[in-house]
Design goal:
This protein has 268 residues and is of the alpha+beta class. 32% of the residues lie in helices and 26% in strands.
Length: 268
């Protein structure tokens, strides 16, 4: 959409209007494919309830196998830490209006300096916390599926407090990993390559689920847009509903309190 609404402040003050591209009657508006372009869209307020073990206000370090994730800074300030097997460790400051796009196979962490709130945009029609992600808890946790499941499930079991415990466990392991960047770069790269390979292997059996999200999201949007172009100038009477997102309660996520934009409602 031209001049997409400038996003600032809390989502409670934000009404997102989305024109649906499909010609003809609308189907279920709760599908991710209803977001413009079939992207995933989530508001993230990085955890500030208490510092992590390293003294920083931060989310958990996570990685995706195939999803690209962009961060548009809505308010506050902080930084994004990045780790990839080609360039190693990097950090970029986050200020309002800045946009950073992270490719797959990059281990990253959001850190808040002052009430950092970002808008996460993800490829494939999937929110960042569905299907394709893995939290870094270190080699020992990765070697034990039961332990990884216990740690990753803390938020579901204990709510916000569990999410902070999960974050803390991840940060402890991540801090040891990051220290290798200065102390032992070969071991740093070896560990990062191990973790990237693990996530790629974990994602492989999920091809069908990820592919379905692509088919009903980005691919469907592309098909509708191409049909609209083909029909020019005869589609001036297209009857497309307008959708909006009614603000919902935040829930504890990987990097902070999240509000995924999933349940769109039609404006009558």
């Amino acid at each position: 959409m031209k001049n997409t609404a400038r996003i600032s402040g809390s989502l409670s003050a934000l009404v997102l209007l989305f024109l649906v591209s499909a010609c003809g009657p609308a189907d279920n508006p709760a599908k991710a494919g209803r977001i413009v372009g079939g992207i995933g869209l989530t508001r993230i307020a990085v955890y500030e309830q208490r510092p992590g073990p390293d003294g920083l206000l931060t989310g958990a370090p996570i990685i995706h196998a195939v999803i690209d994730e962009g961060f548009y800074v809505m308010s506050g300030s902080g930084r994004l830490e990045l780790n990839d097997v080609h360039r190693g460790f990097r950090s970029i400051n986050l200020i309002p209006g800045r946009y950073v796009q992270v490719p797959p196979c990059t281990l990253y962490r959001l850190v808040s300096n002052d009430h950092l709130v970002v808008l996460s945009l993800t490829s494939g029609g999937l929110p960042a916390e569905e299907v394709d992600f893995r939290i870094y808890f270190g080699k020992d946790a990765d070697a034990s599926p039961a332990e990884y499941a216990r740690l990753s499930g803390l938020a579901a079991a204990e709510g916000l407090e569990g999410a902070l415990k999960r974050r803390d466990e991840a940060v402890r392991a991540y801090s040891l990993f990051i220290s290798l960047w200065k102390l032992d770069k070969p071991t740093y790269y070896m560990e990062l390559e191990r973790f990237v390979g693990l996530q790629l292997n974990e994602a492989a059996p999920k091809r069908d689920a990820i592919g379905k999200a692509v088919d009903t999201g980005p691919a469907a949007w592309t098909a509708r847009f191409r049909a609209r172009l083909k029909d020019l100038p005869l589609n001036r009477n297209e009857m497309s509903p307008v959708f909006y997102f009614p603000p919902e309660k935040e829930s504890p996520g990987l990097s902070g309190l999240v509000q995924p934009v999933t349940n769109l409602e039609e404006i009558k």
